[in-house]
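User: quick one - fold this with adenosine-5'-diphosphate bound?
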Amino acid sequence: MNIVETRNLAKYYTFDSGLRVEALRGINVNIEEGDFVSFMGPSGSGKSTLLNIVGCLDQPTSGNVFIEGREIDYRNSSNLVRLHRQTIGFIFQAFNLISTMNAMENVCYPLYFNRVPHSRQEKRATELLNLVGLGDRMHHLPSELSGGEQQRVAIARALANNPKLILADEPTGNLDSGTGKKVTDLMRKINREQGVSFLVTTHDHEMARTADRVIKLKDGKITD
Ligand code: ADP
Ligand code: ADP
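Assistant: Sure. Structure tokens for the protein plus adenosine-5'-diphosphate:
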């Protein structure tokens, strides 16, 4: 079964001046459940746009996206909310933790939105923070954690609601290479042990080396 399929996906931006930017020009990909796939390509090649559309953070101009065989209806907000709550987790380059919440509270946040009872939130968050090796940092604020530790909190948060798919946009982009490798290895371990599929955009060759598959993009098209 494919976790993600895109058909003739295109995204154009048009400006008042008449200028048109073709960010994606007919993307067809099939990602099998359990795969760890990395998207590589120069800046501006469309990697973030593709990830944002698959993650329902943005809409395509034309074409179709299927998650677990079901087409995303970008006009149906309850469809998008359900995908965000139950199926897809996100990891960002800048970590995007809530700065006033400690590690535990950041991981509890998506559980709270899914109306998980308070006692179960803390139990689940504790398990996840232990899984990412931060059992001794649970009550630290993001500002009290290193970049690598913050990204590990973000990984725990992305896993909170047991997603089938994690989308990670340049997850090692703000980390030095040694820390980046540890984050890459952690994501790969979660992929192998829990069967979560990963789509990762990256410039990082270490990340590409660890992936099952590398898809190269250039000027909004797949090059091989
Ligand atoms: P990458 O992630 O590979 O760096 P992006 O997907 O961010 O590439 O961008 C692809 C192209 O689309 C670029 O030319 C970029 O300038 C353009 N683009 C991205 N987002 C927007 C936007 N919100 N409005 C207009 N153009 C955009
Ligand atoms: P990255 O290289 O990490 O993909 P970008 O610099 O391409 O980051 O994009 C950062 C943000 O700016 C994204 O949210 C993207 O949608 C937006 N963006 C990129 N290019 C443009 C553009 N030409 N006009 C407006 N927004 C843009």
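One thing worth noting: The longest helix spans residues 177-194.
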